[in-house]
Amino acid sequence: MFSSAQNQPSRPGQYIARLAKPLAAQNDSRIEKLSDDFVLVNDSNPHALFDAEQVDYVVPNHMYRRHRPQESENIPRAQWGLHNTGQDGGKVDADIDAPEAWRTTTGKTLVAVLDTGIDTTHPDLLKNLYRNEGEVAGDGVDNDGNGIIDDVHGYDAAMKTGNPWSDDPHGCHCAGTIAASGEVLGVAPTATVLPIKIYDDEDWTDAATIIRALSYARKAGAKIASHSYGGLIFNAAVRDAFAQPDMLHIVAAGNYRHNNDEKMNYPSSYNLPNMISVAASDRNDDIASFSNYGPKTVHLAAPGVDILSTTSYGNHGSWSGTSMAAPHVAGAAALVATVYPDDGPVGWKTRILDNVDVQPGWQDRVGTGGRLNAAEALKPK
Ligand SMILES: [Ca+2]
Ligand SMILES: [Ca+2]
Ligand SMILES: [Ca+2]
């Protein structure tokens, strides 16, 4: 069952500092550079390590929990979210109109998936898996000099290694919904997915790992990032890392039945111009009972119940959660970014939100009152 408890500790003795000016060369092992703007400080008195004018602010390294989807009891025969013919008792056309969108493009954008990592050998994902051209696999050398050894198909931002492989099906499922090409199809079946592992063995991530992951994604050239985790405490460093305007962030609203307008759920509730927060809907165009919602802080819904996609060890499976809904929007954003590259993240967001299929009774649930429609978002307007 979905958990309703969300406590949010921080990593003891760890802080994140936003730099007011670039840090001079230093050899202090307590300070790790996370990105151009942020450092992780492993010291319980972080301010003592800097001059006052060196840092803008210091915040705890807050932790975030991966959203937990539910496995479906019956595996659906088809991907109703892409094209709903009423199969398995659904409503005809309660879908994102993927085949119609593919007449315009099947996508070329690089999409980062900050998640559990994936099965990097899955036959449905191989074709569209990120390949770091500057890196030679398995030679134990950081050939492209980006600081990570053998990062050929992605990154483990938690362990700081070049291996994003995982036997956890969650990230694999999300990546497949974005860009699978095989037995199942993603929303953008010729886009590229960059898997970045962000969780520890207990499904926690933290602000430093997220900033590290986003810095890696940015350098790799990702234009879209998909996120499926949350927590209750505002963290300025995560908010400011998301706010960098070169990437569009697609964030799952959460599976706690909350109104996020009243009980904020971060990063979904950061309310940034380059971020979309996603609730889950079902094959009948109803908002899923488990889905968080909020007309002010959740923008739209997308298919997130009984979603068939890729899972570990080359398998397929059906899951329900806002973690399944957000990748539908990330895939659609990859299509929109392919056709309208010059619009940028804020423009891509506008095209997606202005072209939802509005549903009766949804106005008090999500800001647009509607469900994602990829084909409409691609039309010249
Ligand atoms: Ca349709
Ligand atoms: Ca490397
Ligand atoms: Ca290498």
Low-confidence parts:
1-6
Q: Kindly state the mean pLDDT as a whole number?
A: 95
CATH hierarchy class name of the largest domain: Alpha Beta
Query: How would you classify the helix and strand content by structural class?
Result: alpha/beta
Q: Could you tell me the radius of gyration in angstroms?
A: 20 Å
How many domains is the backbone divided into? 2
Strand content: 15-25%
Q: What's the CATH architecture of the largest domain?
A: 3-Layer(aba) Sandwich
User: Considering the protein shown, what is the CATH homologous superfamily of the largest domain?
Assistant: Peptidase S8/S53 domain
What count of helical segments does DSSP give? 7
Remind me, CATH topology of the largest domain? Rossmann fold
Question: What is the chain-wise order of helices and strands?
Answer: EEEEEHEEHEEHEEHEEEEEHHEEH
Bound molecules: calcium ion
Distance between the termini: 42 Å
Overall body shape: globular
The description of the largest β-sheet is: 7 strands, parallel
